[in-house]
Specification:
mainly alpha, two-stranded antiparallel ribbon, 8% strand
């Protein structure tokens, strides 16, 4: 950290960025709801569509975070404290908590669905499999997806 120079003062939370963050998290929450429905219905096509949409939103969120990644070590971040900024920060935080909870729940649901499909197909997840050259390979859940 450069202590001799004056720090750079940066305001990161402009209203359009906060609104974009809130909107992207809202879209991600909707996609997670669709993903949950796809897992529950074992709909591989809908699950693939939801996964592609999630990846696109993640790229958008990463672009939104670029100014933070490029900050100098001695930067001082200033937050606006007006009501509109506070409201948008609170909305984004609420979305973030819901998105995290839904993502965790979907991961557990997906694991349970994979276990159920494995059991229905008579596949022991702890067993090894063989490739076309008769080499033993660890069991992979992706093999179940391809089988279904």
């Amino acid at each position: 950290m450069n202590m001799d120079a004056n720090p750079e003062w940066i305001q990161l939370e402009d209203l359009p960025s906060l609104e974009a963050l809130r909107d992207l998290l809202g879209q991600l929450e909707e996609i997670l709801d669709c993903e949950r429905a796809a897992v529950g219905a074992l709909d591989q096509e809908q699950l693939t569509t939801a996964t592609a949409a999630k990846h696109e939103l993640i790229r958008n969120l990463e672009q939104l975070a670029e100014p933070v990644r490029d900050l100098p070590d001695d930067a001082v971040i200033v937050r606006s404290d007006d009501m509109e900024h506070r409201r948008l920060r609170a909305e984004a935080a609420d979305y973030m908590m819901r998105v995290r909870a839904k993502a965790r729940a979907n991961a557990l649901l997906l694991r349970d669905a994979m276990d159920a499909v494995s059991a229905a197909l008579g596949i022991d997840p702890g067993a090894a499999t063989y490739d076309k050259r008769a080499r033993q390979r660890p069991f992979s859940r992706s093999n179940i997806i391809r089988a279904v």
